[in-house]
Amino acid sequence: MSTKRPLLEIRDLDVSFQTQKDPLRIVHGLSLTLEQGETIGIVGESGSGKSVTSLAVMGLLPQPTGFISNGEILLDGRKISGLKEKEMRKLRGNEISMIFQEPMTSLNPVFTIGDQLSEPLKQHTKLNRKERKTKIIDILKTVGIPRPEQIIHEYPHQLSGGMRQRIMISLAMLGEPKLLIADEPTTALDVTIQAQILDLIRRINEKKNTSVMLITHDLGVVAEICDKVAVMYAGEIVEYTDVRTLFDKPLHPYTQGLIASMPDKNERKGELYSIPGNVPRPTELPQGCHFSTRCPLAMERCHQESPPIISSGGNHTVKCWLHDSAVKKEGEEAKEQLVEKEEEYNVRHAITS
Ligand code: SF4
Question: Is the pLDDT of residue 131 over 90?
Answer without folding.
Answer: yes
